């Protein structure tokens, strides 16, 4: 590429931005699935399950994502498990996001008013039925604003995949800069692109929080 | 006709919240040492009138003079006015993170710049006045509602105001706790404190008021000595007193 | 897969890890103190009567909260360099982390300010306290007490996030780990150890904040009740 900033650079950045979105989606889905299981485990009637899941959350929330990233990318090959940058980044983000989403969702499930739980019990529904038919539908409404808010964290956190060589937005900026030597300009552009990805979600999250009373699921409409 | 003895005077005071006229040409005058009780139904403008004295509300037209301060003047030095005026609220509003003593000494130290020792001495004195000497080091939440309200009165007294405002100070209290607060106010009146109060306690008003102002739809419907409560001239006041509200 | 873990070569280098951990704590402490100050000023600014100040503080908060720390660090690093200013990696790292956490602290403390009942302010105004005195004596401490858990969690997150400053060669814990693993070829063991050290640092910080809370909220210490 070389020389001054040109259309090729922007195409390259666009590609990086797409990978940022893609990696965020992987992290959201992967972290969401594992996080949902964590949330259920955290409120399990079985004490061992509760303690194990709480331990997982404490462990991951006490470790920097960057270290998890290094552990997957450099650590696993060192003990004989080869791994690609994409796989390392996806696995790390999934593990990390699961711990946070699990906690957020546990809070949401627990904040469904007590009488609802008792009413469901009174109807002689099984535990699974109570969860699926009574508690979760209400918890989803409560969980929507903080989950959308956390998606902003996910997008920002995918930037750390750049340190294991995965070419997302931040890494594509670094690569362009290696030929341009205009770091401030390049990183300013990168920052603007991240902002453009994150800010609408931040706004949406806040709007949901303000108007998100019962009976409103604006995300579905959006 | 403003005499020197006048501590609070309202002249043709008007105020609206949007389309709603809450004060519609209100006049009254409070002389030094006098107790003025404002009564009326909720929404009659009585609390707004009281809050205008300390300029918690600004007026649209008319004139308010309090202790020589022209309250209606936009250039008024608010902090000077408020050093002369003490106000006690319905919900006590003690500062929850400060002990009773700290609640009381804060303003004298920060505003009047008196020494800490002097402020503490004063705190003891005003707490004795309201019968709470032993609560010096308690936090507000450790006190009953009545005690909190008495402490709030003591906090105002420590600033040595020239006039005290009481805004429905017993409305948030359980009936059995109102007596202790009203007794403190009676003692203050007997000591010659100038006071303006909004209250629902009719029996108390009869006993303490030099002047009663009955407000109705933003206007002073009837005013006079406490005796108007027993022999009202207007049907509105008669009805108001009759219902006991 | 050959799982014969050997921590020997790693543990031998414990003084390096200790230095790294200390530097991480120093970075986090500095950014916490400065970030708290920015957070208080920013929150006051967000509630200012001057619309320009409100706007500036709002832009600061949104710009920081919607971009990654990694990019912010590079911007500060290269921004200072392009201005011809030479700072140590530690200073650049501390500056970037402070700017970052200041924005989050602003939002958290503002929520605390907003939770102070109107009656508290009116009572203080009625006692002739000035606006500054009201913030200082009446609003600040109860507001911080209300948001203390959220605020301190944010500072712990900041300590963990400071690992990113290894990318501009601040010699904190993660940078030490990167060095040791390339030196010993024991990447797995190194990062496991470092993860454990970070968890310990989180616990140390939480303990520190708990003790600090006892010191600055005497009411809570005496009554054991939340505000």
From TrEMBL, chain A:
Protein's cellular compartments: Cell inner membrane; Cell membrane
UniProt key word Transport: yes
Protein keywords: Cell membrane, Membrane, Transmembrane, Transmembrane helix, Transport
ABC transmembrane type-1 domain mapped to chain residues: 17-205
Topology term for the membrane: Multi-pass membrane protein
Lineage top rank: taxon: Bacteria
Main location: membrane
Entry annotated with the keyword Cell membrane: yes
InterPro entries xrefs: AA_ABC_transptr_permease_3TM (IPR010065), ArtM/GltK/GlnP/TcyL/YhdX-like (IPR043429), MetI-like (IPR000515), MetI-like_sf (IPR035906)
Residue spans crossing the bilayer: 12-41, 53-76, 184-202
Family the entry assigns: Belongs to the binding-protein-dependent transport system permease family. HisMQ subfamily.
UniProt protein name: Amino acid ABC transporter permease
Protein species of origin: Microvirga puerhi
UniProtKB/TrEMBL annotation, chain B:
Gene Ontology molecular function, alphabetical: ATP binding
Annotated localization: Cell membrane
Keywords: Amino-acid transport, ATP-binding, Cell membrane, Membrane, Nucleotide-binding, Transport
Keyword Transcription carried by entry: no
Main location class: membrane
Membrane topology: Peripheral membrane protein
Keyword Cell membrane found: yes
Pfam assignment, any one: ABC_tran
Domain ABC transporter: 8-242
PANTHER family: AMINO ACID IMPORT ATP-BINDING PROTEIN, GLUTAMATE_ASPARTATE IMPORT ATP-BINDING PROTEIN GLTL
Family classification: Belongs to the ABC transporter superfamily.
Protein name: Amino acid ABC transporter ATP-binding protein
Organism: Microvirga puerhi
TrEMBL record, chain C:
Record's subcellular location: Cell inner membrane; Cell membrane
Domain ABC transmembrane type-1: 21-209
Acetylation in keyword set: no
InterPro entries assigned to the protein according to its UniProt record, in alphabetical order: AA_ABC_transptr_permease_3TM, ArtM/GltK/GlnP/TcyL/YhdX-like, MetI-like, MetI-like_sf
Transmembrane domains' residue ranges: 20-44, 190-217
Membrane-topology descriptor: Multi-pass membrane protein
One Pfam family of this chain: BPD_transp_1
UniProt keyword list: Cell membrane, Membrane, Transmembrane, Transmembrane helix, Transport
Domain of life, source organism: Bacteria
Iron-sulfur as UniProt keyword: no
Listed Gene3D superfamilies: MetI-like (1.10.3720.10)
UniProt-listed PANTHER family: ABC TRANSPORTER PERMEASE PROTEIN, MEMBRANE COMPONENT OF AMINO ACID ABC TRANSPORTER
UniProt family annotation: Belongs to the binding-protein-dependent transport system permease family. HisMQ subfamily.
Protein name from the UniProt record: Amino acid ABC transporter permease
Species: Microvirga puerhi
């Amino acid at each position: 590429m070389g020389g001054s900033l040109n259309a090729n650079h922007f195409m390259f950045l666009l590609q990086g931005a797409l990978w940022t979105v893609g990696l965020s989606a992987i992290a959201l889905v992967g972290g969401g699935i594992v996080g949902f299981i964590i949330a259920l485990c955290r409120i399990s009637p079985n004490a061992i399950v509760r303690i194990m899941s709480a331990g997982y959350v404490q462990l991951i929330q006490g470790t920097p994502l960057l270290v998890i990233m290094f552990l997957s990318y450099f650590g696993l090959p060192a003990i004989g498990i080869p791994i690609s940058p994409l796989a390392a980044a996806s696995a790390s983000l999934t593990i990390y996001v699961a711990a946070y989403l699990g906690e957020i969702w546990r809070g949401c499930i627990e904040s469904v008013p007590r009488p609802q739980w008792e009413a469901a019990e009174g109807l002689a529904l099984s535990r699974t039925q109570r969860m699926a038919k009574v508690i979760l539908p209400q918890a989803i409404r409560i969980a929507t604003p903080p989950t959308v808010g956390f998606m902003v964290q996910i997008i920002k956190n995918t930037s750390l995949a750049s340190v294991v060589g995965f070419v997302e937005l931040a890494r594509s900026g670094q690569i362009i800069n290696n030929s341009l030597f205009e770091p401030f300009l390049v990183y300013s552009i990168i920052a603007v692109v991240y902002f453009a990805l994150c800010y609408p979600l931040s706004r949406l999250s806040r709007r949901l929080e303000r108007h998100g009373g019962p009976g409103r699921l604006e995300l579905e409409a959006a | 006709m403003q005499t020197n003895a006048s501590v609070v005077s309202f002249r043709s005071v008007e105020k609206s919240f949007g389309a709603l006229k809450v004060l519609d040409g209100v006049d009254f005058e409070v002389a030094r040492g006098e107790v003025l009780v404002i009564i009326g139904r909720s929404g009659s403008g009585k609390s707004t009138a009281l809050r205008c004295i300390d300029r918690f509300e600004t007026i649209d037209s008319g004139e308010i003079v309090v202790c020589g301060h022209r309250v209606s003047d936009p250039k008024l030095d608010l902090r000077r006015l408020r050093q002369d005026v003490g106000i006690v609220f319905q919900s006590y509003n003690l500062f929850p993170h400060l002990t009773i003593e700290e609640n009381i000494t804060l303003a004298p130290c920060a505003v009047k710049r008196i020494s800490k020792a002097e402020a503490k001495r004063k705190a003891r004195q005003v707490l004795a006045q309201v019968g709470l000497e032993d609560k010096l080091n308690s936090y507000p939440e450790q006190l009953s509602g009545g005690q909190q309200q008495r402490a709030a009165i003591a906090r105002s007294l420590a600033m040595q105001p020239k006039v005290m405002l009481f805004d429905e100070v017993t409305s948030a209290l359980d009936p059995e706790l109102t007596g202790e607060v009203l007794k403190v106010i009676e003692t203050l009146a007997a000591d010659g404190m100038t006071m303006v109060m909004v209250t629902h306690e009719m029996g108390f008003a009869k006993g303490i008021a030099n002047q009663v102002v009955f407000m109705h739809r933003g206007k002073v419907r009837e005013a006079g000595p406490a005796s108007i409560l027993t022999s009202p001239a207007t049907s509105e006041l008669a009805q108001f007193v009759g219902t006991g509200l | 897969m050959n799982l014969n873990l050997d921590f020997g070569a790693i543990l031998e280098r414990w003084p390096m890890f200790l230095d790294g951990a200390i530097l991480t704590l120093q970075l986090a402490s500095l950014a916490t103190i400065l970030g708290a100050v920015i957070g208080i000023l920013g929150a006051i600014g967000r509630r200012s009567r001057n619309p320009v100040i409100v706007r500036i503080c709002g832009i600061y908060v949104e710009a920081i909260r919607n971009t990654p720390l990694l990019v912010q660090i590079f911007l500060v690093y290269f921004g200072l360099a392009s201005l011809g200013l030479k700072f140590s990696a530690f200073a650049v790292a501390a500056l970037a982390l402070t700017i970052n956490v200041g924005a989050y602290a602003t939002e958290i403390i503002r929520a605390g300010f907003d939770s102070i009942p109107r009656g508290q302010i009116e009572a203080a105004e009625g006692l002739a306290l000035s606006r500054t005195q009201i913030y200082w004596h009446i609003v600040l401490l109860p507001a911080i007490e209300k948001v203390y858990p959220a605020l301190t969690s944010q500072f712990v997150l900041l300590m963990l996030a400071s690992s990113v400053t290894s990318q501009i060669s601040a010699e904190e814990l993660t940078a030490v780990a990167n060095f040791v693993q390339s030196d010993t070829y024991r990447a797995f063991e190194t990062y496991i150890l470092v993860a454990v050290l970070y968890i310990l640092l989180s616990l140390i910080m939480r303990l520190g904040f708990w003790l600090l809370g006892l010191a600055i909220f005497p009411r809570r210490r005496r009554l054991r009740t939340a505000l």
